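Table S2 (text version). Query chain:
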Amino acid sequence: MSVYNNITYDIYGDTLNKLIDRSITNVNENLLNGITTIGKDAFRYCYYLTNITIPNTVTSIDRDAFYGCSSLTNIIIPASVSEIAGGAFENCSRLTSVTILATTPPTIGYWTFEDTPIESGTGYIYVPAASVNAYKESAYWSDYVDQIRAIPE
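Corresponding structure-token output:
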């Protein structure tokens, strides 16, 4: 177990396994410094999480990492992320905006945005303008073609 700013969390190697304090509202990149994987269930049921800054060291977001983070409304995923596992944002009932900075579409698993406004058509996925077609043509992103937009300038 580790503690940063009174936040207790579990790290194994370069993977954030679990945030122990589920009442957290804000996570800055200092907490995730050096992490390459946001592990399975790492932020599961952090109901009050409204803001997270994911650093450029992160390359993958594991299954159910943010499952049930019902206060999370938007998230920016850095260009370094190449894989987002199934259910990563499932049941994030207020998640209306996901900005992905990668020019090459990351792989995603099933149910990545299940039970979110993105799945229901009222939320959007923003990607670099030059990559909109690549995302829309990617088999991984085919369920979200109508939700993919260019990052506003």
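Notes on Table S2: The radius of gyration is 15 Å. The longest helix spans residues 132-137.
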